[in-house]
Amino acid sequence: MGSIAVETRSLVDIASRISSNTALLNKHLASKVLQTPTFDKDAEEDFHSLTDAPKIEAAREALLEDTNRLHDLVLGPANVLRRICWGSMNTSVLRAIYHFKIHEAIPLSGGSTYSEIATKVGLPEHRVKSIIRQAALDHVFAEDSPNHVVHTAASAILIRNKAMLDWVGHFTEEALPTSANLVDAMERYPGSEEPGESAFALAFNTQSIFKFFDENNDRQARFFGAMAGVGKSPGLSVQHILKGYGWVQLGKALVVDVGGSSGFVSTALANAYPDLEFEVQDLQHTIEKGAQDLAPELRSRVKFMAHDFFKPQPTTGDIYLMRHICHDWSSKYSAKILRAIVPAMKPSSRILMIESVMQAPGTLSQLQERTMSQERSREDWEDLVFQTDPKLEIKSIHRPAGSWDSMIEVGFKS
Ligand SMILES: C[S@@+](CC[C@H](N)C(=O)[O-])C[C@H]1O[C@@H](n2cnc3c(N)ncnc32)[C@H](O)[C@@H]1O
Fold first, then answer.
1. Residue 76, by phi and psi: left (phi above 0), alpha (psi -120 to 50) or beta?
2. Mean pLDDT of 60-79
3. What pLDDT is recorded for position 4?
4. What stretches of 76-181 show up as alpha helix (H) in DSSP?
5. Angle between the N-to-C axes of helices 54-75 and 11-31, in degrees from 0 to 180, rounded to the nearest 10
6. Are residues 210 and 239 in the same domain?
7. Which of 159, 246, 302, 310 has the most CB within a 10 Å radius?
8. pLDDT tens digits, residue range 212-243?
9. O-methyltransferase C-terminal domain location, by residue (predicted)?
């Protein structure tokens, strides 16, 4: 059933499907001698990857959707609205934990009392207690005895995983104020395609998100860390890019990684495909970091170049790789970025965009749909390519199994 379709099953029917899918999942974990999910601080950070077991993955997705439905049915409609509104409070609580480094004040083994934590972070004990107790309702921290706090699996990630900590920082300190400005931006600039009139621009009084990061190096470093963390989630893994395109068939070829950030996609491809050469293009600050960290054995095949992607493309390449570029820009600016590449293309060159392609509601899992509601559909991508240059066409769209992104291949019309 589509995830936004009206629910017609009884509570017992939903619970019964939950029960059978739980049994299926449990049997799979047991057969692979995998750890049963737990909130313990030493648990695996992510649910075990089920890419090689699509039926079990489907059971897991159905479980997530059904438990959510059952929860909301039992909650009742008025409380569903309250739950949604309370969501922003929970994000603010997480922001307080991040900002005051509450996670760092609690040792991974042993834990701490509220009074010890309050002294370490310099806040009143009652404030610390209310923040932690609110977070604990979401399994971030727990009390193992009255007034004594220990880490859980989720809170331990804030200590052990810097990329995830950066993601939490970016989300709570940049995405949260941005979302609070969404309606203001819609009121003041309805239908605007200008980055300077976006909710982000209003929240941070800037001309664009990338200008803002370029001028705020600490926040930029955190954003890069956060993006690297995002790349580690199974649906966005670089492995899908390595396996999802005919890289070998290209033979000796030059890949231009437009807006390639630190070059992590290009370096993964360079390691896997020794015939390929790469030019990673991004803003000056960004490529400096990537060039510094590049492994010496890749230096002859992976080059870095400062290039503003709104300016004419200086390099003739076989592939112009654009991962997660157009999804940050309105169609007007996405077309400008693409148009700047066209004069440099050979007849055989391809632009390879790696982006989400929005599906009809209910086609994807709810988890995936939640992250994609603002993305482009297949028709939107076709319009964008046509708007860029009528000589171009989409040659193919392929979504590798388990990938949240598709490989959108664009070339000159044949
Ligand atoms: C969402 S990130 C995607 C990075 C990378 N391709 C990936 O897959 O994670 C967008 C990238 O575009 C770069 N960028 C933004 N404005 C740019 C511009 N005018 N010229 C070149 N790169 C730009 C940013 O620095 C950032 O690295």
1. left
2. 96
3. 66
4. 77-99, 114-121, 125-136, 153-160, 162-170, 176-180
5. 140
6. no
7. 302
8. 988 898 998 898 888 877 767 778 889 999 99
9. 198-366
Cα 402 off chain centre by? 15
CB count, 10 Å around CB of 51?
15
Region 109-132: mean pLDDT is 98
Do residue 381 and residue 321 come from a single domain? yes
pLDDT at res. 1: 44
pTM for this one?
A: 0.84
Residues enclosing ligand 1, CB less than 6 A? 210, 227, 259-261, 265, 282-283, 286, 308-310, 323-325, 328
Instruction: Give yes or no: 99 in active site.
Output: no
* Enclosing domain of residue 288: 234-412
Number of domains the chain contains: 4
What would the pLDDT profile of 269-299 be if each residue is shown by its tens digit? 999 999 999 999 998 888 887 898 899 999 9
Helix (H, G, I), strand (E, B) or coil at 192: coil
The answer on 376 and 279 residing in a single domain is yes
Q: Exposure of 223 by Cβ count < 10 A (0-12 exposed, 13-18 middle, 19+ buried)?
A: buried
Within a domain: 1: no
Q: Are residues 127 and 253 in the same domain?
A: no
314 shares a domain with 249 = yes
Residue 6 falls within a domain, yes or no? Answer: no
- Token reading at 281: 């293009």
Taking the centre of ligand 1 as the mean of its atom positions, its distance from the CA of residue 283, in whole angstroms, is 8
Q: Which atom of ligand 1 is nearest to the CA of 262?
A: 27
Average pLDDT over residues 118-129: 98
CATH number at residue 123: 1.10.10.10
User: How far is residue 411 from each of residues 80, 315, 328, 394, measured CA to CA in Å?
Assistant: 47, 16, 22, 7
* Atom 13, ligand 1: residue with shortest CA distance: 259
